[in-house]
From TrEMBL:
CDD domains: HP_PGM_like (cd07067). Pfam families: His_Phos_1 (PF00300). One of its GO terms (cellular component) is cytoplasm. Coiled coil: none annotated. This is Histidine phosphatase family protein. GO terms for molecular function: phosphatase activity. It comes from the Bacteria. InterPro entries: His_Pase_superF_clade-1 (IPR013078), His_PPase_superfam (IPR029033), PGM_Phosphatase (IPR050275).
Length: 215
């Protein structure tokens, strides 16, 4: 008989970033109050699932998103560098034409090739490391479920690869909201489906209502 295993790719919650920089892999970027509430909402949503493996990107915002799940599920969090945010030459800068880094001609050369892309880690490299991390989690959680806490671009890139889409894309069209789950189901070693859900969807900024810590 075939064995079903689910690997959930969880994007971290909202980050406190008042300067609106591209923080990338920089240290000391933590969840905001809203981000903590998002993480707690996800933990409550998956508490009854058959999750036996919990892995996180080493970045603080990912570990802080994993923490409520670890408490709810009674699991330890294993760190995996393969789940890190993608490298980006604009890390630590604001991005845009007005007051952002694109107003400076010295940055324009990094935009010459959007297909690789020329400003950061190649999409194919991102997909390969994510698939490897997912495969290891699948083996460890065989017949059960695993949660891997990562970042928007790596999650969207590996999903695009699995679903056979081109890897270069418009970032505004990514279906990977804060604290969302992209669930990959394996039948034995073969991926058979990809699903998407937003357990903290009502807390997303687009909901258009003020956040209350007691909500």
């Amino acid at each position: 008989m075939s064995e079903l295993t689910r690997v959930h790719l969880l994007r971290h919650g909202e980050v406190h970033n008042p300067s609106k920089v591209l923080y990338g892999r920089l240290p000391d970027y933590h969840l905001s109050e809203l981000g903590i509430a998002m993480a707690e909402r996800v933990a409550a949503a998956v508490a009854d699932r058959d999750i036996t493996v919990l892995v996180s990107s080493p970045l603080e915002r990912a570990q802080e998103t994993a923490a409520p799940l670890a408490e709810k599920l009674g699991l330890e969090v294993r760190l995996d560098d393969r789940l890190l945010e993608a490298l980006n030459v604009f890390e630590g800068l604001t991005f845009g034409v007005g007051d952002g880094s694109l107003r400076r001609p010295r940055h324009w050369r990094h935009l010459r090739n959007p297909f690789t892309p020329s400003w950061g880690e190649p999409y194919r490299d991102i997909a390969a490391r994510m698939l490897a991390a997912m495969s290891d989690a699948r083996r460890e959680a065989a017949g059960h479920e695993a949660v891997l806490v990562s970042h928007q671009l790596p999650i969207w890139t590996v999903r695009s690869f699995i679903e056979g889409r081109r890897l270069w894309h418009d970032p505004r069209r990514r279906e990977c909201a804060l604290a969302s789950l992209t669930t990959v189901t394996y039948e034995d070693e073969t991926i058979v489906s990809v699903a998407y859900s937003e357990p903290a969807g009502d807390l997303l900024p687009r909901a258009g209502k003020p956040f209350s810590a007691g909500a």
